[in-house]
TrEMBL record:
Keywords: Hydrolase, Signal. This is Peptidase S9 prolyl oligopeptidase catalytic domain-containing protein. InterPro entries: AB_hydrolase_fold, Peptidase_S9_cat. It comes from Pseudoalteromonas tunicata D2. It holds the Pfam family Peptidase_S9.
Amino acid sequence: MNVVLILCTLTSPLSLAVEFKNLFNAMQYNDVQISPSGDYISMRINHQGKQALAITDRKTLKFVGLISLEGNSEVGPYIWANDERLVIEVVQKAAWLEYTESYGELLAVDYDGKNSNLIYGYRSGEDQTGTRLARKQQDFGWATIVDTLPDDKRHILILSTAMSDKEDRLGELRKINIYRGNQKDLGRAPAPNVKIVTDQEGEPKLAIGLSQENEKIVYFNVDGQWQKVNNSLFGSAFYPLTITNDNSGFYALDNLNQDLTGLFKYSFADGSYKAVFTDKKVDVSSVNLTHDGKNIYALRLDDGFPVYILLNKNIPEAKAFKDILATFTGNAVSVESQTKDGVLSIVKVSSDINPGEYYIYNKKKNELKGLFPNSLNIAKDQLAFTEPVNFKSGDFTVAGYFTKAKQQAQSKTIAPLVLLVHGGPHGVRDTWGFDPEVQFLALNGYSVLQVNYRGSSGYGQQFLSAGYKNWGSLIQTDLKNAVDWAVQQGLANANKVCIMGASFGAYSAVQSTVLYPDTYQCAIANAGIYDLALLYTKGDLQKRSNTYDYLSKVIGTDENILKQNSPVYAVDKIKVPLFLAHGERDERAPVEHINKLKEALNLHKKAYTSFLIEKEGHGFWNLDNQMSYLNEVKTFLDKNLL
């Protein structure tokens, strides 16, 4: 059955950005959700330079509430706790920073902005003047929402973790009143930094965390007591998704006795653990849950373009999703939020030339109605298409994406190439979709090649592990082989290639010019790490109790090898100009990295340009800073490749 599509959109209340800024500010509405009853639609918006929460009437799309916080506080992630009340994670932007940080505070507020109450956090213990409320508990900790308890209109379940310099504290499960802030202790979590999965009644059933040795630890809750489960029962990729609707077991993503990550189902009754679906080439990327969150009806795979697998076509959501996919062929489709009865859903549709548009789907009417357009303000035919590619590199077939420079479509001249390297490197990958940085480069005359080098996620454990202790060697070889392939295919000119990236991508940009000084004509590095040994002593990784074991696994501990794979000690081999950008408040890659690199470059009289922003951290968050950075990047590319 075909879906009825009605294009009716809400007019944006915000001013539109201009020119290339639109690429980075295209989604003025994000985190769009529908209330449990379906009466209201909520979304995060930028209001007066801060993230706020806007609420509209679902039928009229007229605004009925705007929740904007005072001072340096802003709206972070949020949930609908019941039909009228929302719980918001409060984030703050310090005067000396351009990005927001969470301190674990929770604010509860009605949909119309009334009756706001800071129900958890270090500022929550204030007298409630004008009410009969007693002084609330002041919480020096972080709150993580575990369960919204949909059948309980006055409470949610949270995990409260005390503040500490190290992430080694055991959290406490608490039921918290979303009106008064009163809390009821329900016992401690079995380990630090755990994910807790609850059953249909909101009872904790399963927990997963990491040991200090960086190994997964799994616990079952048996008669109110946490019991550690033998790790051999599950694979290295084990990640629990949801307890089944009859509480008889749970679904998980895992790779037990196989290389690729697939969907598994566990039975509490007999302890059986069976594979439900595994693809032949790639890991399962994500799952679609039914409206009650207790069953899975579809999976997403990312083998080039996104592909969706329907598991049980008899489930109503599966039938509806099939029709929606048919309506938006060639797009990525995700169900963002659903009403409690599952009748209404918020659907997001996006592609390589569409940053995202929101629709509301009515299951009873089989009808899609347009809600919020993006504010790209650039015709889609002006944007550049992204195509999946793959090539051989050593023992692996490596996948990636190629975006042809827009002006090249009408020209026989091969455009200069930017090899854009993703960060991570582990647990991260590039996927097909709208990328504002890629579009910026393509619209300015540069083709872009993105590579899921060995060590990237999504292609099985063997491919992931192949990147361990090969940051400065085989991963960089994969990148060079990508350039060679592009040249052989006529997609790039060997004399007009620049390598660019952020975080690990920045490390690769500089390290690759050390290893392959004749392959690239320039390198652009933002927020990079340039001395691997510093990862053991500097940065926010030190806050984690398992940092040493993780780093020893992925980069090793041999001082000579770490030095050998650190570009700061081999700048004498660099032949090309570098563009180095960094935020001076970066905690992941502290500014010591770029300072040491600049010192070495100066010593060897190597050419470089530096671009530092005082209030930025790991990457640039402020839109003006982003555009300043990219305009400098364009100038640098034009100078070295044109």
